[in-house]
Specification:
The chain is α+β, with helices and mostly antiparallel strands. It has ten helices and 15 strands. The longest helix is centred in the C-terminal third of the chain and has 28 residues.
């Protein structure tokens, strides 16, 4: 009787507990009102700190105006100064950074919690071609300037060219997307297109130097036996054959060994010939395209995917997912301006797949005043 009573008591408590737990879904989470919070700054160097701070703060007000009431998410922001100037003694690179921590249903704890990590971010980089927008390609130098591969252009956003960001994929941590826009002086750009002809020449020049260095090291490190050493090695191998081969098969084994014996010199020459052939085959597509140097198409911008950047076979188009190769335009930067003045801006935002994160993205893209941000350039 007591056991029966205890069973029904436990069942009743569990039943009551299941009904007492608060429900949790996207609609409930979206009713949570978040707020904007200032985080401690990072790497704010001395010198022009006050001037940089005042400019970042103006940019942050424009960001907050685009997304004034976080829902189901908490917004935090901070300032930073980091990286090297794009040109020697050029303007200081600085950034506005904002992260957005979404609430979620913790099924284990049976409650709503705020996430501790996030892929939903907003960055505003000033005076720098950040690698998440323009990937530095260390292998090539064109007209003495560094070379970059822009992220894939995917259209326009409110009249501005829109690019994919660095992170657009699904992994074990979820699905994430990113986008970017560059803001510059009207009619000017901090980078210039690399033409197909310029790329092909740089590609061949880089690989010729690389191959020469490799072949020099290969020939030096692959030793060749002297005639005496070669005979001694041959004799040693024949002696081994005599020990391990049945007498009735020994004559045939020796004959095969001597017929197929390859000296170290022959082996080296064969290896060198294979390497040279492979190199010539790898360089052929670029050489063939460059052979007719008067082709009008060689003056067009080089659009590549990453594979063809290092092992070239063909150019592609932006419509097929190609990315434009560019070189730095040092004349863009006005060296007479104070170092803390923003001369170019890259707007970059990423978001996780989720209702609160998508709401942030939608409001940002609809409301962020890109024109007002652009007006901060040179001021």
């Amino acid at each position: 009787m007591i056991k029966t009573f205890l069973f029904f008591l436990l069942f009743s408590l569990m039943h009551h507990s299941s009904f007492a737990q608060p429900p949790c879904n996207d609609d409930i989470i979206m009713n949570i009102k978040g707020k904007w919070v200032k985080r401690p700054d990072a790497n704010m160097k001395a010198g022009n700190q006050a001037q940089v701070t005042s400019r970042i703060d103006k940019m942050q007000k424009l960001l907050q105006a685009a997304y004034p009431e976080p829902k189901g998410i908490e917004a935090e922001w901070y300032r930073s100064i980091s990286g090297n100037a794009e040109v020697k003694a050029g303007p200081v690179p600085f950034a506005l950074n904002a992260l957005f921590l979404a609430y979620f249903c913790n099924s284990y704890e049976k409650k709503i919690e705020r996430g501790g990590e996030t892929g939903t971010w907003f960055y505003l980089w000033a005076n720098q071609l950040n690698s998440w927008f323009a990937e530095y390609i260390k292998y090539y130098v064109i007209q003495k300037q560094p070379v970059y591969l822009l992220q894939k252009r995917i259209g326009e956003l409110r009249g501005y060219p829109l690019y994919e960001g660095n992170y657009n994929r699904t992994s074990n941590t979820g699905t994430r997307y990113s986008r970017a826009i560059i803001l510059t002086r009207t009619g000017q750009t901090p980078y210039l297109p690399v033409t197909k002809k310029q790329f092909l020449k740089a590609f061949l020049n880089y690989n010729e130097k690389k191959n020469l260095k490799f072949m020099t090291a290969f020939e030096k490190n692959m030793t060749v036996k002297t005639d005496e050493e070669e005979e001694a090695n041959k004799k040693k191998n024949l002696e081994i054959l005599e020990r391990v081969t049945p007498p009735d098969k020994l004559a045939r084994a020796k004959e095969n060994f001597l017929r197929n014996y390859v000296t170290s010199r022959q082996s080296k020459e064969t290896s060198i010939a294979k390497i040279k052939k492979s190199y010539e085959e790898d360089m052929k597509p670029a050489r063939d395209l460059l052979a007719d140097s008067v082709k009008p198409e060689l003056g067009q911008p080089a659009i590549l995917d990453f594979d063809n950047l290092l092992e070239f076979k063909e150019f592609t188009t932006e419509e097929k997912g190609g990315r434009q190769l560019v070189r730095l335009n040092p004349d863009y930067f006005d060296m007479t301006l104070p170092k803390y003045i923003p001369q170019l801006l890259i707007v970059y935002w990423s978001w996780d797949k989720g209702k609160a994160e998508e709401n942030f993205r939608t409001q940002l893209e609809a409301n962020l005043n890109f024109s007002a941000l652009k007006e901060t350039i040179d001021k």
